[in-house]
Amino acid sequence: MPIESALTLPLIDHHCHGISPAELDLKQFQALFSESYRPPPPGTNEFQKPLGLAIRAFCAPLLDLEPHAAGEAYVERRLKLGAAEVNRRLMQAARLDCLIVDTGHRSNAIHTFEETGGLAGRPAHEVVRIEAILEEVAASGVSAENFAKAFADRLAERTAKAVGLKSIVAYRSTFAIPQTAPETSEVVTAVGAWMKAAAAAGRFRVSDPTIIRHGLWVGAEICRAKKLPLQLHVGFGDPDIYMHACDPTHFTDFIAAMEKWDVPITLLHNWPFLKEAQWMSEVFANVYYDAGVILNYGAAESERILREALQVGKFQKFLFSTDAFGLAELYYLGAFLFRRAFASILDDWIADGFMTARDADEIVRLVAQENARRIYPGV
Ligand SMILES: [Zn+2]
Predict the structure, then answer these.
(1) Same-domain pairing of 253 and 319
(2) How far is the CA of 269 from the centre of ligand 1 (A)?
(3) Can you give the residue range of the structural domain that contains 62?
(4) Widest pairwise Cα distance in the chain
(5) pLDDT digits (tens, 9 = 90+) for 137-180
(6) Using an 8 Å Cβ cutoff, are 126 and 96 in contact?
């Protein structure tokens, strides 16, 4: 008997992004379920990998197609129904309780967080990405000397209604950097050099570890004062990452400092560092973690991946997320594959005598909603 609550309880998606309102052609659609900047090899397509197969198997029926419809037919049907209808169908079928949306990535190409929640028929809350604000302030024309104050003011303003902050330090400088707050003079020098380089390049993209550390600590102070969690991207992502240096245990000193401040740290995605994330959730009072979008990318293997994510991690600190970006399919599949895998795993544990159905229901409630509500205020 599958655990009913695992299959039915609405999920809080604690880390996701906006979806695209665009009418996507075959190439554009495939690009949105690839982490690569490169197309698939000639003569092949993205529908031939696990995630593409899952879209054909499980999303096609929601667009009135047979399961396993061809990728071309799927995209054709998508265009015929129109993005608005497709987005509504898939988002509502995901049965989310609410969405906690990171608004810092390509925000001009996607629906706002409120609109994305509206398509799901559910409330949405905002998480502010620190590096996006660093870049916005640097591009505003402020001087290097006035940067720190302008950034602190802008971040405070942008987070007035946010339920959390997020850093992509792992993407931009890796976790293998010094972890203390830099001196003011160091920040002024680093920002001056950044502005010069950015003016020449015509693009403000922050990657200097001093500036990133500055942003992180200013953000951490806001989290401490307002009792907000700080999300950290870990592991799996696009080619900007130096994967080996995205192991979250490199960031132990910062995470320990946040434990002293009572700031919850949510480690996002984590794959292939799921074991490291679980160990951190065991030893640090403030560490939470999820498995994120890797369940979508693993698709047919999602149950095995979720099993790995739950090997020793604390159930009372594990969170659900889709990490969906751009495609409503990624929201739907994220929730669908998670529910399916979670129910099956809990069933096995009950059958093996490790827990009762009542224990399982309690764990479902924690993971689906209560863990997130404990750390995200007002959710
Ligand atoms: Zn994300």
Answers:
(1) yes
(2) 8
(3) 25-81
(4) 65
(5) 999 999 999 999 999 999 999 999 999 999 999 989 999 899 99
(6) no
